[in-house]
Design brief:
Strand order of the largest sheet: 1-2-3-4-5-6-8-7
Keywords: Acyltransferase, Transferase
Enzyme class: transferase
Number of strands: 8
EC number: 2.3.-.-
Strand content: 25-35%
Order of helices and strands: EEHHHEEEHEHEE
CATH superfamily: Gcn5-related N-acetyltransferase (GNAT)
Shape: globular
Organism: Nocardioides astragali
Distance between the termini: 24 Å
CATH architecture: 3-Layer(aba) Sandwich
GO molecular function: acyltransferase activity
Largest sheet: 8 strands, mixed
Structural class: alpha+beta
Oligomer: single chain
Helix content: 25-40%
């Protein structure tokens, strides 16, 4: 799957490019990760991760576009710079469900980029038979909780410092 990037407009008025991740994106994913604040890295990976290793970057960039899909958002000023990623990874034991993960560069927070990425990824997930996203995040990550609630998060539970829930993906029948 090698779709060309397409422009999307964010609620902030900004325009970015979105396309499926490519196997050649590994080093750019590492660059984008290195630019994230420690807090953002921790909230995304739920652990202190000093850098994205070569093997992690390869895993995140070499997807099959069915059971593991990712979309990247690219800077309007430089179409090689990744500023956001949304991905799902289907659960082998529950193929109707997939884990949802979202990462947005700190300088792009609160512009609507994550909302657009989740919407785009949800459409792709429905196309390949995923019916529900599951999400797990830090319970104090209010921005992600707001985003996911606006996308239909239900079944929300909090255990210690972690929150989880799911988003039912509407079918287009």
């Amino acid at each position: 799957m090698d779709e060309a990037p397409r422009q999307v407009h964010l609620r902030s008025g900004d325009t970015v490019w979105i396309r499926p991740v490519r196997s050649t994106d590994a080093s750019e994913l590492q660059r984008a990760f290195a630019l994230m604040s420690d807090k953002s890295q921790y909230q995304r990976f739920l652990t202190g991760t000093p850098r994205l290793t070569d093997s992690q970057a390869a895993y995140f960039s070499q997807v099959d576009h069915v059971d593991h899909e990712a979309y990247v958002a690219l800077s309007p000023k430089d179409e090689t710079h990744i500023i956001g990623v949304a991905r799902f990874i289907r659960y082998p034991t529950a193929p109707d469900d997939a884990e949802l993960a979202i990462t947005v560069a700190d300088s792009w927070h609160n512009r609507g980029l994550a909302t657009v990425l989740v919407r785009e990824l949800g459409g792709r997930a429905r196309d390949v038979g995923v019916k529900r996203f599951r999400a797990e995040m830090m319970a104090d990550n209010e921005a992600v909780l707001r985003l996911l609630r606006s996308a239909g998060l239900t079944g929300e539970t909090v255990t210690g410092h972690m929150a989880s829930g799911y988003i039912e993906l509407a079918t287009t029948e």
